[in-house]
Amino acid sequence: MINIKDIKFKDPNWRPKVLVTHNDVPETGLKLLREKCEVTVVETDDRSELLQKIKGMDGIFWGNPDKLDAEVLDMAGPQLKSISTMTVGIDYVDLEEVKRRKIPLGYTPTVLNDAVADIGVGLAIAASRRFHEGRQKIESSEWERRQQWLLGQEIRDSTVGIVGFGAIGETIAKRLTGFNVGQFLYCGHRPKPAAEKYNAKFVPFMDLVAQSDFIFIICPLTNETRKMFNAEVFSKMKTTSVLINVARGDIVDQEALYDALKNNKIFSAGLDVMSPEPLPADHPLLTLPNCFIIPHLGSATIRTANDMAELAAMNVLCGLADEPMNAAAY
């Protein structure tokens, strides 16, 4: 890992111009950039401001999940030599266009593993133990005093399926070992050595769907995974199963999910991500007592935000200094 003291430009007098595309980036990242660069911050969510300010920039700290495409790169100009996002998912980046122009691209994996895993486990508990429905009952004065009221599902002895056993998937498995899980299943393109530590079994996707009591979606959004959780998949899931999505909203067909939850084809769902974001206040999913939704809070801790900002800033600086990025996207 390259540190700020290691950053040296070929021309020691050069102060590269860097655009930060959002005004809510933690100061820890901005401080690193300002030590070596002239920094401009986009103050609004208006794309026209971004396109205006990006002209002539040497580096870009992409602090928001808006489209990073040819339009942006054309407006920046041919001198642009370094970009980093402040996310682990980069589905909003035209990666082929960035590659074609040979511009180094960084992102921020690893540093958010713990925070996202915590949210995933929290959603699993909230959805399986009917937190949202319980709160609704209190608010409507429908609290019942009987033994078999609002009974939920337990993680203990359950089969947990992980769709995407990468770093976050492994961290969730690590968290869940304390819950005395019965078995871990996972699917993907190939077996993962890291899964052996948890005795996780590599199975086909549809086997995972049919056998799991809890399913965690933690895979990237690609053409292959877009709407992979559809009506057919929900029909194969256990009626007692709980679905957790901490990846990307478009991996789930939300109309099919609504139908599955409304008609008790599955037990419940916990969502940190959805489509679109922000989710409209009148969206049908918000009417369901068995759908626990939070507004994309996966990495939203003070420590993780600071870590992500520092990593993204160092990526930009590394690219400007013609050094390998600490976390390169390709």
UniProtKB/TrEMBL annotation:
Annotated ranges, domain D-isomer specific 2-hydroxyacid dehydrogenase catalytic: 18-326
The protein's name: Glyoxylate reductase/hydroxypyruvate reductase
PROSITE patterns attached to this UniProt entry: D_2_HYDROXYACID_DH_2 (PS00670), D_2_HYDROXYACID_DH_3 (PS00671)
A single GO molecular function term of this UniProt record: glyoxylate reductase (NADPH) activity
Superkingdom: Eukaryota
InterPro entries: D-isomer_2-hydroxyacid_DH, D-isomer_2_OHA_DH_cat_dom, D-isomer_DH_CS, D-isomer_DH_NAD-bd, NAD(P)-bd_dom_sf
Lineage summary: Eukaryota, Metazoa, Ecdysozoa, Arthropoda, Hexapoda
Record GO cellular component, one term: cytosol
Pfam families documented for this protein: 2-Hacid_dh, 2-Hacid_dh_C
Family according to the record: Belongs to the D-isomer specific 2-hydroxyacid dehydrogenase family.
Keyword set, alphabetical order: Oxidoreductase
PANTHER family listed in its UniProt record: 2-HYDROXYACID DEHYDROGENASE-RELATED (PTHR10996), FI03731P-RELATED (PTHR10996:SF119)
D-isomer specific 2-hydroxyacid dehydrogenase NAD-binding domain location: 121-298
